[in-house]
Amino acid sequence: MKPARHWAGIGENTFVAGIVLLFWVHRLLGRRLFRLCLLPVVACYWLACAPARAASLQYLRRLERHCGALGRQPGARDTFRHLLRFADTMLDKLLATAGHYPADRVAISGADVIIDGLRQRRGVLIVTAHLGCLELCRALADRSPDVVVNVLVHTRHAQRFNALLDRLNPQQSVRLLEVTEVNAATAVLLEQRIAAGEVVAIAGDRVPVSGDRTVSVPFLGEPAPFPCGPYLLAHLLRCPLYLMACLRQGAGYHLQFVPLAESIRLPRQNREAVIGEYAARFSGELARLLAASPYDWFNFFPFWDQKSKS
């Protein structure tokens, strides 16, 4: 079978039943035994899924050429470690969702300005990427219990995941909103959330499921497609735009908020070029973050060679 050239063609591998099972295995066995159980599971997946191995190796090689993050030429052992990191991070995602991840293991930087604005009912748009443990954005609630985060997702399972979130943690303040593309109806809904002083988060590293609203910018030294959606949305919502990342740091994580633009105004002429400038700023920040935490990139598909899914 020809490997998918678009992330949406890979299918939903994270099923709700599997997520619940993973959570309870940890509850019964503890972290150390859980990690031991992960080894054979990841080994089987690593052996069986050649596209994931190839995507991992492509990314690690380009990262090494770009900044020497590994200090050596990556090989099969590094791709296995990459997949193992992803599997281990899945547990932290569940613990964060359930409110069981220790707050003292999460360092936060760049959030004070955002929280001050939210308290004054000035919402913000956050662009994220599939790296690290973004679910720990719930650590914001420890500083400001009234923070509400709306996450735009492409999956058709959004309602099921919302139900799962409520089961794991009825007090959680994160909502998943299912969208396939950013359009006028989406903008109206999100404008209401921003006006209410809420956070809206959107992935900046996944091209649209339908349509061709993408721009090609350098990423780790090679041109890669990035979605225009986050920057079009920031233009429509007229609100600040931040990058959010939560990467491994020692025995815990570092939740970072990086300002990308206080506001975005896109001209009618040369609009794509201006969007490309913002997307390049985003991709440059991603490269900087990954140089410090190379195994936290969780896009296991041909990232530099995506094609729109029909």
From TrEMBL:
Transmembrane spans: 6-25, 32-48
First-listed, main subcellular location of the protein, grouped into a coarse class: membrane
Keywords (A to Z) from UniProt: Acyltransferase, Cell inner membrane, Cell membrane, Membrane, Transferase, Transmembrane, Transmembrane helix
Transmembrane listed as a keyword: yes
Location relative to the cell: Cell inner membrane
Molecular function, one GO term: acyltransferase activity
Domain of life: Bacteria
Pfam families, per database record: Lip_A_acyltrans (PF03279)
Alphabetized InterPro entries for the sequence: Ac_Trasf (IPR014548), LipA_acyltrans (IPR004960)
Keyword flag Cell membrane: yes
PANTHER family: LIPID A BIOSYNTHESIS LAUROYL ACYLTRANSFERASE, LIPID A BIOSYNTHESIS LAUROYLTRANSFERASE
Protein name per UniProt: Acyltransferase
Lineage: Bacteria, Pseudomonadati, Pseudomonadota, Betaproteobacteria, Neisseriales
